[in-house]
Amino acid sequence: MKGRTLLEERIFERGYHLIAGVDEAGRGSLAGPVVASACILPRNLILEGVDDSKKLSPSQRKQLYHTITKHPEILFGIGIVESHHIDKINILQAALYAMKLAIQNLPRQPDYLLIDGPKLPPTHITAQAVIKGDSLSQSIAAASILAKCTRDTLMVDLHDKWPHYAFDQHKGYGTLRHVQAIRKHGPCPIHRRSFEPVRSLTAQ
After folding, report:
1. CB contact at 8 A, 51 and 141
2. What is the pLDDT of residues 76-125, one digit of tens each?
3. Phi, psi dihedral angles at 15 (to 5 degrees)
4. Using alpha carbons only, what angle is made at residue 155 by residues 154 and 161, rounded to the nearest 5 degrees?
5. CATH topology of domain 2-162
């Protein structure tokens, strides 16, 4: 775990004080929003078990989500961009916009950003893009857990509205069961019409 704080420590040593890790979840889903989180951890805090959210079990993510959100010194913000907006501006721009919203929703403005991936969201704050950042930075890993858990909860809630698609199981991703449900019932209002195979199935 110590290796995941080295990136932040170098930045602290340069004189920055509030470093926010930023990540998103749901980029590849066929339905539902893309959700981003920005997370500021206090210096010298080590969160045992924090890792790329995709490497954790649902129970591990849930426990870490609770640990992160209940910690009195951890600051976080969430940004959500809905499916109809994704279709209008494309998923890359939607993911970057969700990151921008997450940063804006932090209770305090950071002075440095660590962004997962190769692209930076529009911001005036000093920022660094980090490829596979959720495996290299504790702040980004924490943000990935918050984004993933927030989005999963939203998709479970949306399952109650459209149970035919089993959003509570696959969270909107393109599983065989999900694609078969789209073929049978057609897309619902939260499906991303610009994504394949939703686009082709909608055109039929």
Report:
1. yes
2. 999 999 999 999 999 999 999 999 999 999 999 999 999 999 999 999 99
3. 105, 0
4. 100
5. Nucleotidyltransferase; domain 5 (3.30.420)
State yes or no: pLDDT of 145 exceeds 90: yes
DSSP 8-state secondary structure symbol assigned to residue 56: S
- Compute the half-sphere exposure of residue 63: CA atoms within 13 Å on the CB side of its CA: 10
Residue 173: phi and psi, rounded to 5, are -75, 165
Report the b/e string of 16-25 with b at 16+ CB within 10 A: eebbbbbbbb
Residues whose CB falls within 8 Å of the CB of residue 37, separated by 6 or more in sequence, listed in order: 22, 23, 24, 76, 77, 78, 79, 102, 143, 144, 146, 147, 150
DSSP class of residue 132 equals T
Cβ-contact 27, 119 below 8 angstroms: no
Q: What letter represents residue 158's amino acid?
A: L
Q: Could you state, in order of their start, the residue ranges of all structural domains in the chain?
A: 2-162
Give the Cβ contact number of residue 202 at 10 Å. Answer: 13
CB 116 within 8 A of CB 144: yes
The answer to whether the beta carbons of residues 137 and 9 sit under 8 Å apart is no
